[in-house]
Amino acid sequence: MASSTTPTAVPGPVAHTFLGTIQYWFACFFAAGWTAIVCCGLGVQFLSWDYPCPLCMIQRMFMLLAALGAGYIVRRGLTGTLSGNDYMMGWGLALVACIGGGFTAWRQTMLHILPGDKGYGAPVLGLHMYVWAWILFMASVVAIGVVMALAHLTAGRDTPGSKPYRTVGNLVLWFLALIIAVNLVAVFLEEGFHWFLPDDPTRYQFFHDIGLLG
C-alpha cells in the first residue's frame, strides 16, 4: 500500500547560502567589535596612563572570550560548511562570556554607586568604562538571544568560499589573536612577578621588579 505522506518543504541551496552568509558576517562583526572594544581599553591604558584594576581586566577577558565564541563560528565558516552545532557552540560560549562580563561590570558599578563617589578611572562620554561595558554586555546578550532563537531560520550549512569572505574572516581572527597577545603583555607588565594585581594599581610593577624603576 503506497504511503500518502506529504513531503516537507526545505530551503533550497540558494536560501541556505544566503542565510549562512548573514550569520557568518554577523559573527565577523561580533568578534571584531568586541576585539576593537578591548583595543580601545588598551589605548586608554597606554595613552592616558589609566591603570586598569582587577575587575577591569576580568571584563576584558570576558570580552575576548565573547569574541572567541564568534571567532569559532568564523573559523568554521572558513571551511565552507557551518552546521547548527557550530552556531550553538560559538554563540553559547559568547553568551556565557557576556553574562559573566555583565555581572563583573555590574559589580564594579555597584562599588561606585554611592553619591559623591567619583568612580574608577576617567569617564568616557559621560559614563565610566565599566558602565559602558555593562551596557554592551547586556546588548550582546539580547543580540545573541535573538540569533539563537531564530537559528532554525538563519543557520545555513553553506558559506561562500570566495576570496573576500576568506580574507575578512582571516583578518578578524588575526586581529583577535593580536589583541589577546597584547592584553596578556599588558597584564604581565602591570602585575609583574606577583600572583595578584593590586585593587588600585598605580604603576607597571614589572619594571619595578626588574629594577628599571625605583
Give a topology summary.
Elements: H1 13-47, H2 54-77, H3 84-111, H4 129-149, H5 151-154, H6 163-191, H7 205-209
Shape: globular
- Number of helical regions: 7
| Oligomer classification | single chain
Radius of gyration: 21 Å
Percentage of residues in DSSP E strands:
under 5%
Broad structural category: mainly alpha
Helix content: 55-70%
Total count of strands: 0
What is the N-to-C succession of helices and strands?
HHHHHHH
Distance between the termini: 92 Å
* Biggest sheet details: none
Rounded mean pLDDT is 80
Q: Note poorly predicted spans.
A: 6-16
What would you note in describing this structure?
The structure is a single chain. The protein is mostly helical. The protein has seven helices and no strands. The protein starts with 12 loop residues before the first helix and ends in a 5-residue tail after the last helix.
Name the descriptors:
about 210 residues; mainly alpha; about 70% helix; globular
TL;DR?
With 214 residues, the protein is mainly α. The protein has helices at residues 13-47, 54-77, 84-111, 129-149, 151-154, 163-191, 205-209.
